[in-house]
Design a protein that fits this description.
Length: 507
């Protein structure tokens, strides 16, 4: 066992007497350790978070429950990991993480993104009881944020009554800073409706949540849920211990059961009702294994002619004459071998799917300094620098186009429903059997390539991207050699899903 603060690490780091009858202060005996383990009160090391829940604004996804009588209404903690998809300016300015009460009667507590800042507020009869709104904005759709709010209105010092943390660090700079009166009992942690991913004013969150925890009766700092990696300095999750001695309204949503995404894993049986979420909304995209998505902040020249949904895994290009929007994966690579799948959701005639180093002047695979290569859905032709050449076959609604990108040998392969075009063999290395030869990353202007998709035509087209955490049902299920990803068709040997772990190893 490792040591910390002069003692063997345990539920309170440094052991003290009185936690278990007969246990001496400063020493953990093995029998005592086993007692805490059996009570699920012993920290178990770094957390391997397996699942998140994907919330889609357009589908009105949320969870709700009316909590019972709190153990202590004056003290609680909210902790969750969040990856945003929809930012300010789309649908509404507010994207709700959690709320309690009824907005229509102006009796509501709220935790949400407002104009991309974080806001924690409480209103009763139109009176602001508390409000903290950060100066910092949070617009990185490729990142997971760990957000924590510790509420303790019993504190004598006003600024100690609410503390907000992001990725292990306390936020101290606010554009609005109003603290509750001492001993104020908010609507959070009371016997009223609580909602996750929405407020009662039909404003929703769009993105991913993992490890959603509410602690009744304790105001905890982030170290109860995460820690800084000693090597990288990155904030990471750890096992949540000591849930056995918390209050009645405690809940812990780990999203491990796809058939019951509102299941409470805390042992307090505070299960939430699922609204519009389905099993496909369970995702393996987490703060531990962060998968690529499409990036609404980085798209082709026609910024307003595309919309995103399904956790930024669905791209829809609108009908706008000669405006041909396309979008990029949030993660790019300069070396290694990578695989992704794209499903044609509607109107394949204008579909463009491939890779790009940056934004071209026209469409994906069009002219400009940025290099792009794309298969055109209407014909199956391959486009590069604005010119098309015969390559594959036309696409239909429901087809899945596989893209295998070999940046070690500068080759690109396309498959349709599991069969590679041009008798391609992605494992052929420098030989490049059936491959499209691409400009080396070092010479393409940016030094990296993204997976990309979009359209080249006036018709509306919709494309669903699967970088390993699919937004559509998978009938077979295939992962890469590291066990990452869930793909419809077999991942070619030596190719990997585009996530942060694989990128660190192979990219």
């Amino acid at each position: 066992m490792s040591r910390r603060n002069g003692g063997i690490i345990g539920p309170t780091n440094t052991p003290v007497g009185g936690l278990i009858t007969g246990v001496a202060g400063g020493v953990w005996r093995m029998n005592d350790v086993l007692t805490f383990v059996s009570n699920n009160q012993w920290p178990k090391g770094p957390e391997n978070i397996e699942n998140s829940c994907r919330f889609n604004y357009d589908s009105s996804d949320y969870l709700n429950k009316t909590l019972g009588t709190a153990t202590n209404r004056k003290i609680f903690t909210i902790s969750m990991w969040v990856k945003r998809s929809e930012l300010y300016g789309v649908n509404s300015e507010t994207k709700y993480l959690m709320s309690a009460g009824n907005n229509a009667s102006t009796n509501i507590d709220e935790f949400y993104f407002r104009q991309d800042t974080l806001d924690f507020s409480g209103y009763e009869s139109s009176t602001t009881e508390f409000q903290l709104r950060t100066n910092a904005i949070f617009r990185d759709v490729s990142a997971w944020y760990h957000v924590v709010v510790a509420y303790d209105s019993t504190q004598g010092t006003a600024s100690n009554r609410i503390k907000m943390y992001v990725n292990g660090s306390q936020i101290t700079s606010f554009s609005t800073e109003t603290y509750p009166d001492q001993n104020h009992e908010p609507l959070f942690n009371s016997n009223i409706a609580h909602e996750i991913g929405r407020n009662t004013d039909t404003r929703y969150f769009d993105g991913y949540m993992a490890e959603v925890v509410f602690i009744d009766g304790q105001a905890l700092d982030p170290t109860s849920f995460g820690e800084f990696d000693s090597t990288t300095g990155i904030w990471k999750p750890k096992k949540i211990g000591r849930l056995g001695d918390v209050g009645n309204n405690t809940f812990y949503l780990d999203f491990k059961d796809s058939s019951s995404l509102g299941n409470d894993a805390s042992g307090k049986n505070n299960d939430f009702t699922v609204n519009n979420l389905t099993s496909i909304d369970q995702s393996t995209d987490t703060c531990v294994e962060n998968f690529a998505t499409l990036n609404p902040n980085h798209r082709g020249t026609h910024l307003t002619d595309a919309s995103f949904s399904e956790g930024n895994l669905k791209h829809q290009g609108t009908s706008s004459g000669g405006n041909y929007p396309y979008s990029f994966s949030t993660i790019a690579a300069s070396q290694g071998k990578w695989y992704a799948e794209f499903k044609v959701a509607s109107d394949p005639t204008t579909t463009m799917i491939g890779i790009a180093s940056g934004i071209a002047d026209s469409f994906l695979g069009g002219t400009g300094s940025a290099k792009g290569y794309a298969l055109y859905g209407n014909s199956g032709n391959l486009f590069e620098s604005g010119s098309g050449s015969s390559y594959g076959s036309a696409l239909s609604v429901g087809d899945i186009l596989g893209v295998a990108m070999d940046l070690d040998n500068n080759k690109l392969y396309f498959s349709k429903n599991g069969t590679f075009h041009n008798s391609g063999d992605p494992t052929s290395g420098s030989t490049g059997t059936g491959a499209v030869s691409i400009t080396a990353p070092a010479s393409n202007g940016t030094g990296v390539y993204h997976f990309a998709c979009g359209k080249a035509g006036s018709a509306t087209t919709s494309i669903q991207a699967n970088f390993g955490a699919p937004p559509f049902s998978i009938s077979s299920g295939n992962s890469d050699a590291n066990g990452f990803g869930n793909f419809e068709y077999a991942v070619p040997s030596g190719y990997y899903a585009l996530n942060t772990s694989n990128l660190n190893t192979y990219g």
